Amino acid sequence: MSGSNPLGFTRIHPSGNERTVHNGELVIFRHRGDVQIGVLQAVSPKKFKVATSVNRVMDISRDPIVLYTDIRVRDLSEMLEVRRGIEELAGSFDLEEVWEVLKDDPAVFTPEDIGELYWGEPGSPEQRAAMQLHLSRRCLYFSERDNGFMSRTSEQVRDITDKQARQLAAETEREDFDRWLSDDARKDRETLTNRQKRWFSHLRQYVIHGDEYAGIEQARNLMKGMATFSGGDPQRSAFDVMIRKGVWDEDEHLDLLRYEIPTDFKDEVLEYAASLQPSVEGREDLTGLPILSIDDASTQDIDDALSAERTSDGYRIGVHITDVADLVPRNSVLDLAARERMSSLYLPDRHVPMLPSTLSQDHCALLEGESRCAISFLFSLSADFELVETRIAPSVIVNRARLSYEEANRMLGTVEQPCAEILQILNQAVDSFYQRRIDQGAVDLERSVVSIKVDDRKRIRIKHRDTSTRSEHIVSELMILANRTAAACLNDHGIPAIYRTQAETDLTDLEQSDHDAVWRFKVLRRMKPLELSLKSSPHATLGVDTYCQITSPIRRYADLVLQRQLRAALSSAPPVYDADDMMDELSALERSRILNKIQARREWYWLLKHLEQQKDIHIRAIVLETRERNVLVEFPEYDSRMAVKVGGSPSPGEEIVLSPVAIDPWSGTLRLRQIADHS
After folding, report:
1. Of 356, 334, 353, 402, nearest to 555 (Cα)?
2. In the CATH hierarchy, which top-level class contains the domain 614-674?
3. Given this model, what pLDDT does residue 239 score?
């Protein structure tokens, strides 16, 4: 390139040995790790005012200035035009040939030295400015040293070239990833590179864990290349991506992933479960007893059954619990899988069992007509249903009739049905047991149970079950009886166990309410908290002197643990768990709280989905409590409570009608407004 002036600027030539600085001259200076071009607007002995744009003027000392360019401009617009030319010129240089000449020379060179070798002449001011800019901005072939520049070694150049190639490849890879994310038609995750798969995994983990995700910054950086949907919520936008890419559907249950709830069993666990065979040796043969089970019609993991018969001096009733401990040895792969889960989850849209279905719905389930191993609680009663004798025995039983609650209720009113007599005996017996508990201070808080079921086509069905029916009363009372009997046996034998205790609640000064929901709320708020302990103490709310839970070993791991302890007591064998072991099991029950939270959140999600599908729905609510800013209400139809803002000050027990204003199942948000006209 010649030394002409192609950019049309004015040059300033210094006179003598001292550099003269003028307003309007372009300078190259360092600022915050970068090298910039600006124009001098004011000059003083110690400070310069330098403008880099119309709205950007800064004060700098002489130290950051690396080059006075000898280029003067009339105004900022001319400065911007000249600077653009210098920037373009700096970007066009390729100093490889100059570097080849100088690379073995350890000397430090000035930009003028390098420029003269490059052009074959000293170069014009704009050329020298461009060379200074090029060299100061991470030049491939030269590094800055002692106010000049030194040739890099061949190895250094190769390392930088390789790094730049990797950076370019990474940028290209990221651009390809961004395009793939934006293309809804592309669901081919197999075509992604390993790094792109890791990026996609970051997005997935961000959806699951939200702000608690350790890689949140990486995930949010990846989101910058995406259009943000869902009201600007980046986590939800990433969830939308997972749906579009076919990873999840719109109703994916993220809590199962967030809390690492296993939903499938490993092959070794399934193989182990399939190989198990029950042991009938040493068991009492009770297959001749008239035994039936009463459960919800959809129940498949039937773990308890009942029997009743007349005797010469009264009655004998039985509570028969499937003997899961017989098939699941402690610390086996199957036991460890069950302990990891701690409990079965009965969600509206799926069932996550604690044990594989080959056990929970087959070999351990008390299926109709099938011989099964059980732990039988046998109670001898007098003619007026006073408890005379209690016995617990390992047994073999056959469930003769599998009934739903509705079927049992219908049979209670007949005499012709095969199971009618059994049900009538049980019905009279439990009234006696119930009254004894009430006399000992039990608090009865009956309420309907609402269950939400979602089928394979995502149709939502809300079912109400009245827990005050006779069949419900029979089952609940006999489960309490079996549990307190097991607790007493374990305590009498000094075998470590997990007891459920609750201190007595003083209700003497509690103001009565005309509405059951308000009374129930007041009592529940007054109650002392339930405690789990290795020490036997009364459960005042149930009105019993000792209590544990042992009647659901298919679906609650703690029940399986206590069943092992009870079997040891019955056979006079050493306990399976010592006190330290039992303390560990007590600590592990903390996971049950998480499972309860997961279940409640999922039920709320599907309730909101149900409300979302209704048009102009009106929700009946009972005011439980009036607060300063809102009222707490209960929805009898949905067995739910929440705080809402309403007009006026409705009294507890008053019924109000609400209508949804906003429903968002994703966030769990439900906003309601009061409807003045209840019609």
Report:
1. 353
2. mainly beta
3. 94
